[in-house]
Amino acid sequence: MAAQSGPGFRNSPSQTAQEPAQLILEDIHLRFGGLNALSGVSFGVKKGSIQAIIGPNGAGKTCILNCICRFYQPYRGSITFEGQDISHIPTHRVAELGIARSFQNIELFRGMTVMDNIKLGHHVHMHGGFISGGIYLGKAKREETRVRKEIEERIIDLLEIEAIRKKVVGTLPYGLQKRVELARALAMKPKILLLDEPMAGMNLEETEDMARFILDVNDEWGVTIVLIEHDMGVVMDISDDVVVLDFGTKIAQGSPAEVSRNPQVVEAYLGSEAAAHSKLGL
């Protein structure tokens, strides 16, 4: 796919409009001192969709992900995942429920190998006890073997990182490190994957590869994607639905085609009509 080829808009997922959303944010308010970071943000994410969140720097996009992951506690509003209110659950429970994320800045263990970094993502599903884990016998050893096999056969193959699986992460170029971070998130077996600017800092080839991997995870694995991204070519190419934030407020939501024509979005984020056409490859 040509990530920056412009409005090759995806078809919407097959769910009917009446089907309840997998993830629902309702009236989310977040404040830091006297600064309102989010003001009444509400939207739903359909199961199996790619949901993009866009907006200018400081619009509150990453705050949304941090609220979903329970890094931040909104002072008003609720977040529901598959019918369960997760607004006040402990942070570690979010991962156990099937919500994984990548970060805007790479958060890997640079002195560890690619394989070891990826395996860390699977820790929420490990069941070996303290003793068997400590002496690496019995259940712990069998579980380790199973996890390694699963990672090698599914994740490493999908993301095309077989050649670097034994390399130390800190020696890898930036684009490959971003791919390893995605692999670690996938090792958590997510139902929903939250991606915070996964293409940031990448060249065109790396961007196209990452967009392809995201589509594969969504299409082949059925993982719902919530994506923050500034590359509007990517957003318009791969997203099913787009939420637009400005100064912590949702100003628009709709299909990529609808959002790209919204005058308020053009004014707040895309700039002039000519600039909007340039960003979208029109």
What is the topological layout?
Layout: E1 23-32, E2 35-45, E3 50-54, H1 61-68, E4 76-81, E5 84-85, H2 91-97, E6 99-101, H3 114-120, H4 130-135, H5 138-158, H6 174-186, E7 192-196, H7 204-221, E8 224-228, H8 232-238, E9 241-246, E10 249-254, H9 256-261, H10 263-270, H11 273-280
Explain this structure.
By secondary structure, this protein is of the alpha/beta class. The protein folds into two domains: 19-98 and 190-282, Rossmann fold, CATH 3.40.50.300; 109-189, no CATH class. It has helices at residues 61-68, 91-97, 114-120, 130-135, 138-158, 174-186, 204-221, 232-238, 256-261, 263-270, 273-280, and strands at residues 23-32, 35-45, 50-54, 76-81, 84-85, 99-101, 192-196, 224-228, 241-246, 249-254. Helix 7 (204-221) links the parallel strand 7 (192-196) and strand 8. The radius of gyration is 19 Å and the shape is globular.
